[in-house]
Design brief:
about 260 residues, alpha/beta, Rossmann fold, 7 strands, globular
């Protein structure tokens, strides 16, 4: 998979803004205003910045990659109520009971010890604090490819990627039962079709795919395989090669209260 510590990958998760589809969904779920928020696995600070703009009183972004954190610091340099910490999601070294809300977006599929991960969130939250976990279940990943769900074409072209993708994904049942075992209450699940990016045409999409930008699963492919995948996807859009493409990803969001 992608080497998050590599200097060449430092900006792979900081080159876009959080989409309004995500912002509006989070606003529907909870009120960010005035909250002390922790963004675990903040990457390039895309969602750290969004949380601050949504009215959080303070946001701390935490990541285990110093290279990516340097990109996040640059990305958020103009926002005064954001700070960053270097740390591990399983053992952050942060003080207990200080956060009103914790976000873990696209993190748990990198975690082998889900119980320890959720125990650390529980420790860090204030009483009645809220955790928001966002990731893809196996079912989210393997939806059929379409003119909006580009990811589905990856697995149509290379079925061998399916096992790799689903083996690192937790089912909703696993997430909910682990949260419950830790002591979280009022566990809820939501689905989100989040706009990933808008492309003016298929050629712009192809260029983005070839860069593997923000798509860790594509690092499983050789350069030649990636070129063949892009050709396959371009072929799927032959009927509308000059039309705008709105790419969306299907996510599952879980919330729980300490």
């Amino acid at each position: 998979m992608i080497d998050f510590h590599n200097q060449e990958n430092r900006s792979t998760y900081s080159t876009r803004e959080a989409d309004f589809t995500w912002v509006n969904r989070i606003k529907d779920i909870c009120d960010i205003k005035g909250k002390n928020v922790l963004d675990i696995g903040c990457g390039g600070g895309i969602y750290t910045k969004a949380l601050a703009k949504m009215g959080a009183s303070a946001v701390t972004g935490l990541d285990f990659s110093e290279q990516i954190l340097s990109s996040a610091i640059e990305n958020c340099k103009d926002i005064p109520n954001i700070d960053f910490e270097f740390g591990n999601a399983l053992d952050t070294k942060l003080d207990a009971g200080q956060y009103d809300l914790i976000l873990e977006r696209a993190v748990i599929h990198h975690i082998h010890d889900l119980k320890s991960c959720f125990q650390e969130m529980f420790r860090l939250l204030k009483s009645n604090g809220l955790c928001i976990i966002q990731d893809r279940t196996p079912e989210d990943c393997l939806l059929k490819g379409s003119n909006t769900h580009i990811r589905g074409y990856f697995f149509e072209k290379y079925p061998s990627l399916m096992k790799k993708e689903t083996s690192r994904r937790y089912s909703s049942e696993d997430v909910c039962s682990t949260l419950q075992d830790i002591g979280f209450k009022h566990i809820k699940e939501y689905k989100l079709w989040e706009i990933r990016k808008i492309y003016e045409d298929v050629n712009q999409l192809a260029a983005d795919l070839l860069k593997r930008t923000g798509r860790s699963i594509l690092h499983e492919l050789t350069d030649h395989q990636l070129e063949e995948l892009v050709q396959f996807i371009v072929g799927e859009f032959a009927y509308a090669e000059n039309e705008r493409i709105i790419e969306k990803d299907r996510w599952t969001i879980w919330t729980a209260i300490k």
